[in-house]
Design goal:
alpha+beta, 2,3-Dihydroxybiphenyl 1,2-Dioxygenase, domain 1, 4-stranded mixed beta sheet, 2 helices, 9 strands, 17% helix
Amino acid sequence: MTAIGTLATHHVGLSVTDLDRSLAFYGDVLGFDTLGEGAEGDSRFAFLGQNGRLVLTLWQQADEAYAPGRAGLHHLAFEAESLDHVRAAEAALTARGAAFAYEGVVAHREGAASGGIFFHDPDGTRLEISVPKGAEGAEAPSETAPTCGFF
């Protein structure tokens, strides 16, 4: 252990181009509650969570969509309670017209029990909803790289 102790992720902040559109996506589709909103000049922000716990902050300060070729966030992964919840999220995302990296539930790697869905938010940010077990038998998109690596 280091001198600063064990760290856990508290929340993740994402820059977005349109806060209202992102609030609809993360709230209506992914089920996050808006815990608070604010503004400073033309820049707006919102705190999102579940069961009163802050998980995600959205900052309307981006002029362009997410760019995977830039240093920074690679992808944001959420763990679901069950594979049924992953499939329910997939259905909600499909109805919303979300862009998926792969079709259906895929394994994290060949032969893994873990797996999920991989998709993009309205600004192109790469997202994952997965489970640690229950995806046995699902195909892996790559035999050599982790599924969450290059989508």
